[in-house]
Amino acid sequence: MEYWDLVENPTGETYRQLIKVLCDYSDTFYFVTRKELRYAQEILDEFEPHTVKTYKTKKWANTETKGPAATVYVMEANQDTCELLLQPANKLYDWVAPNLPEDLTFIKNNFAWFTCTTHEQFGGFSIRSNYYRRLLDQVSNLKVVKVE
């Protein structure tokens, strides 16, 4: 297994390419909302038809909260949801309260291969094969560093 961390916030065309690769090579993705924060309800409403499930938890990728449980929204990764991820944001770390849900995480075969903790401006890849490693090369100007 290899771990690759983002060095800087993907913006503009790099963000668009990243989201496209993540959607194209994932089965599902999720984001979270927290009870103590506000979010744009119209954004959640746009994703509603694509929601696979929602659940409450105090622990998700890279995060464990001592406060109230967060709501995780699991979505289908497809062309429609990819477009929904691109519309309200121009940078990865735009996915943060008060406007957008947080902590985008992309999953393939029940394995979270991309995780993000947006309020801490942290994102990274867990790579299990050369196939997925080569996908990172499809995103121009993506700044990543291999974690040793």
Q: What's a quick, concise take on this entry?
A:
This protein is of the alpha+beta class and 148 residues long. It has 4 helices and 10 strands.
Structural write-up:
With 148 residues, the chain is an alpha+beta fold. It has one domain (2-141). It has 4 helices and 10 strands. It has helices at 12-24, 41-47, 79-86, 130-135, and strands spanning 2-6, 28-34, 51-57, 59-60, 63-64, 70-76, 102-108, 111-117, 122-127, 144-147. The strands form 2 sheets. It has an 8-stranded antiparallel sheet. A hairpin with a 2-residue loop joins strand 7 (102-108) and strand 8 (111-117). Helix 1 (12-24) runs antiparallel to helix 3. The longest helix is centred in the N-terminal third of the chain and has 13 residues, at 12-24. The radius of gyration is 14 Å and the shape is globular. The N and C termini lie close together (11 Å). The mean pLDDT is 93.
List keywords for this structure.
single chain; 148 residues; alpha+beta; eight-stranded antiparallel sheet; two-stranded antiparallel sheet; 4 helices; 10 strands
The tally of helices reads 4
Q: Count all strands and give the number.
A: 10
Question: Helical proportion?
Answer: 10-25%
Cα end-to-end separation: 11 Å
**Poorly predicted residue ranges:** none
- Number of structural units classed as domains: 1
User: Strand arrangement, largest sheet?
Assistant: 3-6-2-7-8-9-1-10
Beta content comes to 35-45%
Element-by-element helix/strand order: EHEHEEEEHEEEHE
Category from helices, strands and their pairing = alpha+beta
